[in-house]
Amino acid sequence: MEPLLAELRTAVGAGAVLTDVDVTASYRRDMMPLAPHGQPLAVVLPTSTEQVQAVVRACAAARTPIVPRGAGSGLSGAANAVEGCVVLVTTKMNAILEIDPDNRLAVVEPGVVNLDLRDAVEKHGLFYPPDPSSYDWCTIGGNLSTNAGGLCCVKYGVTTDSVLGLDVVLADGELLRTGRRTVKGVAGYDLTKLFVGSEGTLGVITRATLALRPLPQAPATLVAAFGSTAAAGVAVSRVVTEGIVPSLMEIMDRTSIKAVEQYLKTDLNADAALLLCQSDSGGEAGRRELAAIEQACVAAGADLVYATEDLSEGRDLLTARRAVLTALEVYGAWLTDDVCVPRTRIADLIAGCERISESVGLRIAVVGHAGDGNMHPTIVYDPSSADEFARAQRAFDEILGLGLALGGTITGEHGVGKIKREWLAKEIGPVGLRVHRGIKRALDPENLFNPGSMFELL
Amino acid sequence: MEPLLAELRTAVGAGAVLTDVDVTASYRRDMMPLAPHGQPLAVVLPTSTEQVQAVVRACAAARTPIVPRGAGSGLSGAANAVEGCVVLVTTKMNAILEIDPDNRLAVVEPGVVNLDLRDAVEKHGLFYPPDPSSYDWCTIGGNLSTNAGGLCCVKYGVTTDSVLGLDVVLADGELLRTGRRTVKGVAGYDLTKLFVGSEGTLGVITRATLALRPLPQAPATLVAAFGSTAAAGVAVSRVVTEGIVPSLMEIMDRTSIKAVEQYLKTDLNADAALLLCQSDSGGEAGRRELAAIEQACVAAGADLVYATEDLSEGRDLLTARRAVLTALEVYGAWLTDDVCVPRTRIADLIAGCERISESVGLRIAVVGHAGDGNMHPTIVYDPSSADEFARAQRAFDEILGLGLALGGTITGEHGVGKIKREWLAKEIGPVGLRVHRGIKRALDPENLFNPGSMFELL
């Protein structure tokens, strides 16, 4: 292995090749406790596309796998090291290279933190929508690789909807430029959207051209409390069928509400479900949207609806939603699922999670993006108990099965990674799997990039 | 060849296999006069996925290429027959299988006409955005294969932005299901968006799950006349930088204006450029948007701005834009380009087209989607003159070069087809081309589907 380390040091400089096990330990895994992870041979931190190319060529020659990694905020183990690999960390490639307000686009390196980009474009009256929960530390590169979502998706879509083009270092070290700087373009296959969400299995993204939107108006906020999840589900369906597109529509189930009440020492005045909505349309349009949402909630049997145009009050109302995961940590460690179901099946999903919770004897809090059906049932367990961990795993899998049974998908935004491979095979079937393997082989015949993520190449 | 014809007759029924040269002639080419086309062995019109599978298996066994085709409204020759092929026409698979207003989606067969889908979902208060000019006769299958755009794109994106999932018959006759019915989903590679825009080179789409939007408000309309294209370009840039997103923003240059004035026997009161804009936000928001567009036009030096909330008056104002191609036919045949440039370069593109027009000695009218930079410079020539046709071809190519030189793409919505292969190679470069070929080989190793469209496999 020594010759490879020497080549890596030549490629990126000795200081950017980490091999001390105590140091590399923190690059071994992401935030998903279930996923397997190995010990990397080295962690490299390149600062340019050319350095990435040199690292890829060296690893290809040595037949040493590369696991690309951003900040490590992922929840599927996609960035987890495989034994003896090189972890290629893009966090030092963190320049915002260009912001072009006239064409509403930005060109960035992959290590730019999501929040830093948001802040930088906001100064130009512009908006980069994707806002995963980890937006204050996750990187654009990771967002691209997982096709990250967030709270914005109900109105503004996911990461792929904001990408115009990519620079990608391929398995032979060549640089591929996909896409364009224009709003539209159909020259050739849509390689950009093929690389987005490919979890680092097809190449290393070293630059991205991102589409920006005009900065929305300050949001008005509404919360609605329900005595049953079924009623909350009906409210969501009504909002959808009545053609309202809120800029945020989140749901919390009974278990989430109770956890947050205990943690924040407050009364959320909701028995079974809480719906939190925002409109960022501004002015009369925003008021009309919020009034229509209020009507939909009342018609669905909400116990209580409260709306405000006050920004800081609105932020306070969202505190409950943002506090869920932290609140659950009072009870133990958590493991979060990411199923996405048709919007009409949200209440069924929550009911199913209650059944699974009873069956495994563990607390499961359901919180999620009601506006697009992307739910995060979160299982709480004692990490020191092997038995509880096993039951948590069982619940995790049963929720995936439930999501599929409800006509949904196993992952709305976290990805497949190294934890849901069998489930991906179930969801896409043998023909789908064969096509995936064919594309992987076409782009990475030696299985250099992130082997074993998403699927085994065989 | 007889055994294949017998198998095709078994597969789809004798009446759905056309071999009479007089009949098949109308399936030889689409609407692009420049593209090469051959004589098909047969034209088949299957009515089900199973029939498509049988046709594909029979053709694969006989090593006879398949060219998938919708209505034939394409403008790149992508649906043109290659010599001795089977043209697989999807127009008889024209059922709208499902409209689900609660989840805002529709499931359709590929032969559904765009307008029929629009009308059907409108009854549920829903909206299918993609609206190519041929929307009253083009099919969804063709729209998917070319990733079609239209006037809606500035606000609502292109076809790929409205697709959730596809059924695709692959080269071995197996059925691939991509995507999902949920709003979000990241399970595996985004195969859906890989097939969208692949111009029938990777498989035959037999079903699509489409995302719908709430029906927008009735549009308010504005026209602005400019004494110079530069001023009109400044107006477009101002609209973009001020964060306004009109639902339509079209531009006509001097040559388009003159042609339409002569054809409609009217005075458009515009010397050099006409901008036509709509807002479908409704109410106060719509008025605010239109007022902001008006301000941007005035500030850019518009000679005249006129706005109306009256629907039928608005429709009348758009008549000029819709009449351009018909008006040009008074002078001869037309050949339309489809470059897309950064929105800040629209005036440069128009100026460049004026230079090319002078240089080749042919009329070139520039009309296009100013809101997204997708321009259709349209060359008028005498089809009976080989010399004029050759000059038209030269102009066509020079405009593609101009589009690339301005930082744009050779095609915003019409596709590469059999007419821009060399230009695709120029735009995406050797690495891009290699990746395209790798993906094509992975999915269609025998080059069964639409060989020679987009690129030669080699």
From TrEMBL, chains A, B:
<dbReference type="InterPro" id="IPR016171">
    <property type="entry name" value="Vanillyl_alc_oxidase_C-sub2"/>
</dbReference>
<dbReference type="InterPro" id="IPR051914">
    <property type="entry name" value="FAD-linked_OxidoTrans_Type4"/>
</dbReference>
<dbReference type="InterPro" id="IPR036318">
    <property type="entry name" value="FAD-bd_PCMH-like_sf"/>
</dbReference>
<dbReference type="GO" id="GO:0003973">
    <property type="term" value="F:(S)-2-hydroxy-acid oxidase activity"/>
</dbReference>
<dbReference type="InterPro" id="IPR004113">
    <property type="entry name" value="FAD-bd_oxidored_4_C"/>
</dbReference>
<protein>
    <submittedName>
        <fullName>Glycolate oxidase</fullName>
        <ecNumber>1.1.3.15</ecNumber>
    </submittedName>
</protein>
<comment type="similarity">
    <text>Belongs to the FAD-binding oxidoreductase/transferase type 4 family.</text>
</comment>
<keyword id="KW-0274">FAD</keyword>
<dbReference type="Pfam" id="PF01565">
    <property type="entry name" value="FAD_binding_4"/>
</dbReference>
<feature type="domain" description="FAD-binding PCMH-type">
    <location>
        <begin position="36"/>
        <end position="215"/>
    </location>
</feature>
<dbReference type="InterPro" id="IPR006094">
    <property type="entry name" value="Oxid_FAD_bind_N"/>
</dbReference>
<dbReference type="GO" id="GO:0071949">
    <property type="term" value="F:FAD binding"/>
</dbReference>
<keyword id="KW-0285">Flavoprotein</keyword>
<dbReference type="Pfam" id="PF02913">
    <property type="entry name" value="FAD-oxidase_C"/>
</dbReference>
<dbReference type="InterPro" id="IPR016166">
    <property type="entry name" value="FAD-bd_PCMH"/>
</dbReference>
<dbReference type="InterPro" id="IPR016169">
    <property type="entry name" value="FAD-bd_PCMH_sub2"/>
</dbReference>
<keyword id="KW-0560">Oxidoreductase</keyword>
<dbReference type="InterPro" id="IPR016164">
    <property type="entry name" value="FAD-linked_Oxase-like_C"/>
</dbReference>
